[in-house]
Amino acid sequence: MRPFVALGGRLQQHADRQSSMKGSLADWAGGRFFMAPCAGPILGLVLAGAALNGANLYSALLLLVFAAGAATSLGLALLAAAGVSA
């Protein structure tokens, strides 16, 4: 986990130096893009299915796919925010 913690620290330091109104607006817009009205209910359905079916490979795969989609959306928002604030 140490490499991820170090990466997070470096990103935070970079964000502190690049703080601006445009960057904040891009961060807000990226968050709105990810937290669309469909993200919560979809996660709820995946978790309800996992609770009803028990821990199995299918449930784990669905959670992994949801996490990959969320990470992709947030990564694209981060790149867009970096492009706006640069």
Reconstruct the topology from this structure.
Layout: H1 2-17, H2 21-34, H3 39-53, H4 57-85
Helix pairs in contact: 2-4, 3-4
Structural class: mainly alpha
Mean pLDDT: 74
Uncertain spans: none
Total strands: 0
Largest sheet: none
- Basic shape: elongated
How helical, in percent, are the residues?
A: over 70%
Percentage of β-strand residues: under 5%
End-to-end C-alpha gap:
29 Å
Order of secondary-structure elements: HHHH
* Cα-atom radius of gyration: 16 Å
Number of helices: 4
What does this structure look like?
The chain has 86 residues and is mainly α. Helix content is 86%, strand content 0%.
Short description:
Helices cover 86% and strands 0% of the residues. It has 86 residues and is mainly alpha-helical.
Which features characterize this protein?
elongated, single chain, mainly alpha, 4 helices, 86 residues
